[in-house]
Amino acid sequence: MTPTAHNSRRTFAIISHPDAGKTTLTEKLLLTGGAIHLAGEVKARGAARRARSDWMKIEQQRGISVTSSVMTFERDGITFNLLDTPGHEDFSEDTYRTLTAVDSAIMVIDAAKGIEPQTRKLFEVCRLRSVPIITFVNKVDREGRPVFELLDEIADMLALDVSPQAYPVGMGGEFQGVLDFATGRVARPEGPSKEFKGKREADVELPEKVAENVELAQIGYPEFDLDAYRNGDLTPVYFGSALKNFGVTELIEAIAEFAPPPRPQPAGEDTVGPERDEVTGFIFKVQANMDPNHRDRIAFMRQVSGTFKRGMKLTPSGLGKPIAIHSPILFFAQDRELADTAEAGDIIGIPNHGTLRVGDTLSETNKVRFTGLPNFAPEILRRVQLRDPTKTKQLRKALDDLSEEGVIQVFYPEIGAQWIVGVVGQLQLDVLVSRLSAEYKVEAALEAAPFATARWVSGDAKALDQFESFNRANLAKDRDGDLVFMAKSPWDVGYQEEKNPELKFSATKER
C-alpha cells in the first residue's frame, strides 16, 4: 500500500426512516459494487440467510435489522466500507455510535413522504459531527410529492443548502426515467418491469413541463460546492428507485468522487489524522454471540491512522497492556475474511473475550485517547425481575455483557437488590428479554421502575459525599462504578441541579 492508501477509502452509512428503502438500496449498492451476486441476498427469506446483520431471533421474527454490521466492497480502485445502521423506530445507542465511525452518510427519503421523524433524528446526530450528507430521493417510479416541494422541505427542515444533481422525468404512472445533470443523459426504464438495465440516452427531448422544471432546478438552487458539502452545509440530491436500479451507479460514483476520505478524529484537545504513522483506532461497537455455536465476541474498531498488519500488538486504553491481534476480521458482504493489512478508514473486527469495550482507544504507544463516543441518558428504565433466583450470577454476567455491547445500560442501586436497566428505545427491551432467554438461558421479566431518567453525577468529593448521604435511595452505580442519580422526573433533575450547584448532573457520559 502507498502512504496515501487511506485516500482510496470511503467509510459511510445509510440513514433513513423505516420503509424508505434502505435495505434495498444497501443490496443494490453491494450488487453494483460486485460484493454480492444475486439481488435478494440481503433480504432473502426462508432457508437463505438474511442480511449479515439479521442474525438474531428477534430480527427474524420482526423482519428488521437490530444490530449494525459492516460491508466492504471495491470498485474502480476505491474501497467502500458501508456501515449498516438499524432502521427501525426504536433505535439504540448502537445507531448513534455507528455514526461516530463514518466519514459521510447517504440520507434516503421516500418520494411520497419526504423528511420523516427518524431521518431527522439521525440527521441531527450527523450534524453534531459535521458528517457530510448525500441525499437520495427514492421510489420516484411511484406516485410522489412534487420535486420542488421535496427539495424545499429538505432545505427548510434540515437548514441545509440543496443542490439537485438529477431530475425524475415524470413520477408514478408517468415515470419515463431519470435525467443526470452531469452527463445530460436519461436512464430509461426497460421491459415489463420497467427497470433500469443500463440504457442511457443522450440528447433526449424532454416533455415541455419537465424541461422547464429542470431549468428551474438548475438555476434556482445552489451549484454543487465540494467544500460546502464536506463541511456539512450542503447536500447534493439524487433521484432514483433502488428497487428498479435507477440512480444507484450515480450514487456510488458520487461517493467515490465527492465523499471525504478518512477524516481526522477528535482526541481531547488534539485531533489524529489518517496520515499519522502510528496505528490508532477506537471501538465503536461490541457484538457478542455473532455465531451462537461459538460464544464469540467481536469488537468493531474504526481505524483512524497508520497501516495495520495482522499479528500487530496494540494497547487498549481500558486495559493498559498490549494485546496481539492475530485474527482480525474484515467484513466482505456476507462473509468474514481474515485481514492481513488495513488502512485508516477501514473497520476491523477483533475477536476477544470481553477485554475490549465500546469507547476504548487502541494504539501502538498508548498515548492517544479518542473522545466523542458518549453514553446517552436512558429514556426508559425498568427493573429486572428474575424468574429463577438461583440464576442471579448468570443474570449479572448477561447484563454486563449486554451493557458492554451498548444494547442496554445497567444500574446497580445503592439500596435494594433489584437491578435496573436503561434503554434509549423501547425495542431494546424486547431485544434484552429475547437474548437473555436465547443466549444466556435466563428467564426474566421487566417491570416498571420508580424512575423516569438518570444522570451521571460528578464534582467535588466533599459535596458528593454530602449529596450521597441525603439521596442514597435515589442513587446507583453503573457497570463502571460511576455514580448515577436516578430521577423520578425531569423536575427532580432540575431541583437537584439548583440545590447542588457545585455538582454536575450529566445526560451523557464520554467513554
From TrEMBL:
Keyword hit for Protein transport: no
InterPro entries found in the cross-reference section: EF-G-like_DII, EFG_III/V, G_TR_CS, P-loop_NTPase, PrfC, RF3_C, RF3_dom_3_sf, Small_GTP-bd
Record localization: Cytoplasm
Gene Ontology molecular function terms on file: GTP binding; GTPase activity; guanosine tetraphosphate binding; translation release factor activity, codon nonspecific; translation release factor activity, codon specific
One of the Pfam families matching this protein, by short name: RF3_C
Domain of life according to the entry: Bacteria
Binding site for GTP: 16-23, 84-88, 138-141
Gene Ontology cellular component annotations, sorted alphabetically: cytosol
Domain Tr-type G: 7-263
Function: Increases the formation of ribosomal termination complexes and stimulates activities of RF-1 and RF-2. It binds guanine nucleotides and has strong preference for UGA stop codons. It may interact directly with the ribosome. The stimulation of RF-1 and RF-2 is significantly reduced by GTP and GDP, but not by GMP.
Membership in a protein family: Belongs to the TRAFAC class translation factor GTPase superfamily. Classic translation factor GTPase family. PrfC subfamily.
Name of this chain's protein: Peptide chain release factor 3
Organism annotation: Qipengyuania pelagi
GN (gene name): prfC
